[in-house]
Each structure stands twice: as C-alpha cells, then as structure tokens.
C-alpha cells in the first residue's frame, strides 16, 4: 500500500526545523530547486503550503515532506501537515547523514537540501510517518516529566546521603532539614504523575488492554510497559520483536571482514538506553523469581561460562519476544502455553 502511494511522488520537500523557523528545499521536475525559510507557526505553515500549490502541476498528493527527528520543535509542522493529509517522512539525523556519503559543511539551507536529496535517493525504501493518537502524546509528555522529577530527586538526595559519613553531623543534618520539604514535594509530584498516567491509559480500552497484556509478562513493570507502548506507538510503528530489540540496543551485530577481521557480535550504542535499562531491571527480577529463567541463567553462566551481561542480554530479548507474541495474538502471558494456530507476522 505504501509503495503504491510513493510511486506517484514528483515533489520532494526537505525541511530543516529549528525553534523559531524552518528552512525548506523543494526539488522537482528532474532538477528544479526552490529554497526558502518559513516561521514555525500554524499560519506561516499554511501559507507555505499555499505557495507550493501555486507551482504549475503541484498537488499535495504528489509531494512528500521529509524532516529529522527534532522533538517538540517539529510537532507544529507535523500536526499541520497531517491535518492536510500530506505524506511525511521523519528520520533520525544520523540515518540521513550516513546515507549521503562524505559531507562537508553545515547550515540550515544545506541540511534542507540534503534531506530532499535523501528523499529522492531512498524513495522506494521510505516509511511514512504514522501520527500518534492524542492519548499517546499525553502519556509521552507525562512520562518525560516523571523521568525529569526522578532525576531531580536523585540529584538532591544522593549528595546528602554521601555527606552523612564524611562531614560534620550537625552540618549534614542542617542540609537534610533544608532539603526535606523539596524532597517530599518531588515524591508527591511523582506519585501524582503516576496516578494521572494510570487514569489516562485505563480510561482508553485499547491502551488498557495492551498494558494488561504486557504487565502479564514477568519482568515487565508499569514504567517499562508504558515506555514500550509509547515508543512502539501502540505497536503500530514497531511491529516485530527483532526490530524493537534493535531499537533498544539488545540485538547483537556481527563485525567481520574477509579473513583478518573477526570480532565478537556486539550490541550497538545507537539505541534507546532508557528502555534497555528498564529491561535490565526486569531481567534481574526474573532471575530472582522465575524458575525457568533462573535455571537458564545459572546454566549459561556457571556451566557454559558465558559472560553474565551477554546472558542477561539474551534474557532481555526473551522478554521482548514474550511481549510481542502476546500482543500479536491478543492474550495474556501463560507459562507453558502452546499455540494451536499458525503464527502470522502482523500484529493485530
């Protein structure tokens, strides 16, 4: 379906987004180029699209817009173009950069031109951006806020705890008394955020069902399940366990060439390390409470003499596979479950 949509593309618009403005580069008709800069607000974006419509033969259905992942700066542009039913591609900057060979120099105009060139070069392999539902945007924002508050709490409490045995007790006690009100407020705020998050997803039937399925897998807690829900876009953007394993830095990749370069397969540092860290905590829980995983861990480490982190990485992938398998067939996790139906590759 996506391939048929992309075969009609004739206009390639690369966009480099910043906080106040964005630069664009339109390439069409084999070599024509149009460059410009637009204010990053709804009115200016609509005027920008109207200006494009003035080009002879231009139709929004024949155009594709490309941009880098820029967080909140690109949301206004994405939302406005989505309402106009435009085709949009959003890619990490490193993917665009690595696809274009040797690159020298950098400015906003050049970056927009390079994104347009990326769209032309990789047209048949592009994946259109899938907008998230409002509830996922809300959950993502609350999750980010919660993470910030947790970090603030750690920044305050860790030095106070370390001071206890090394500085004058009276000074340490005074510091703790000064910070206690702030620490209590942060803890209350985290609790309130957790309540708001749970209320949001429990009031949405689809999100609630997905969360319950994920939470049925031992080692997957509420924070981990929420991150999986957000970053897979309800399993619409990332649909397979292998793709998600690669996304969060669990999948190992080979590194060898010819007969002289032979290195062990290693995971990539280009990953969502937040989710990887949460999965690591889940693995520790499984090793302590899941007899089958505990036996597997002990056998691989004690008998086979495998590296502990390598074995834990394999268990992370096992947890990911369990989550995606349960979501695919829409059921809770059951130990020893054997499916009587043929496995399909698509998630429901």
**Share in β-strands:** 5-15%
Question: What is the SS-derived class?
Answer: alpha/beta
Shape: globular
Low-confidence stretches: none
Describe the largest sheet.
5 strands, mixed
First-to-last CA distance: 17 Å
Number of strands: 7
**Largest sheet strand order:** 3-2-1-4-5
Order of helices and strands: HEEEHEHEHHHHHHHEEHHH
Helix content: 40-55%
Please, how many helices? 13
Instruction: Look at the structure and give the mean pLDDT.
Output: 90
Using only CA atoms, what is the Rg?
A: 25 Å
Oligomeric form: single chain
Task: Please explain how this structure is put together.
With 348 residues, the chain is of the alpha/beta class. The radius of gyration is 25 Å and the shape is globular. 55% of the residues lie in helices and 14% in strands.
Quick overview of this protein structure:
This protein is of the alpha/beta class and 348 residues long. It has helices at 2-6, 42-53, 75-83, 93-99, 108-121, 134-163, 169-202, 205-215, 222-231, 241-247, 273-289, 291-303, 308-329; strands spanning 11-17, 21-28, 32-39, 63-68, 87-91, 252-257, 261-267.
């Amino acid at each position: 379906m996506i391939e048929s949509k992309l075969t009609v593309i004739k206009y390639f618009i690369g966009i480099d987004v910043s906080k106040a403005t964005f630069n664009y580069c339109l390439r069409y008709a084999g070599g024509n180029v149009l460059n410009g800069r637009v204010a990053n607000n709804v009115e200016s974006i609509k005027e920008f699209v109207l200006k494009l419509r003035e080009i002879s033969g231009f139709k929004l259905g024949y155009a594709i817009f490309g941009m880098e992942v820029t967080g909140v700066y690109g949301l206004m542009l994405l939302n406005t173009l989505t309402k106009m039913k435009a085709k949009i591609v959003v890619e990490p900057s490193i993917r665009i950069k690595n696809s274009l060979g040797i690159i020298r120099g950098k400015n906003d105009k050049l970056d927009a031109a390079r994104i347009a060139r990326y769209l032309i070069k990789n047209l048949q392999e592009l994946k259109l951006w899938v907008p998230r539902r409002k509830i996922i945007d809300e959950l993502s924002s609350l999750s980010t806020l919660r993470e910030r508050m947790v970090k603030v709490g750690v920044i305050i409490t860790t030095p106070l705890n370390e001071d206890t045995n090394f500085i004058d007790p009276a000074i340490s006690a005074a510091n703790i008394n000064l910070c206690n009100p702030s620490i209590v407020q942060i803890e209350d705020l985290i609790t309130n955020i957790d309540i708001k998050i749970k209320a949001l997803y429990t009031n949405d039937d689809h999100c609630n069902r997905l969360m319950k399925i994920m939470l049925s897998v031992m080692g997957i807690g509420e924070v981990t399940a929420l991150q999986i829900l957000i970053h897979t876009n309800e399993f619409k953007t990332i649909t397979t366990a292998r793709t998600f394993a690669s996304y969060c830095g669990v999948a190992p990749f080979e590194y060898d060439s010819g007969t002289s370069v032979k290195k062990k397969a290693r995971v990539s540092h280009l990953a969502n390390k937040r989710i990887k860290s949460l999965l690591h905590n889940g693995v520790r829980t499984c090793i302590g409470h899941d007899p089958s995983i505990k036996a597997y861990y002990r056998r691989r480490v004690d008998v086979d003499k495998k590296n502990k982190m390598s074995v834990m990485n394999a268990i992370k992938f096992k947890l990911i596979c369990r989550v995606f398998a349960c979501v695919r067939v829409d059921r809770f996790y059951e130990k020893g479950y054997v499916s009587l139906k043929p496995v399909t590759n698509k998630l429901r």
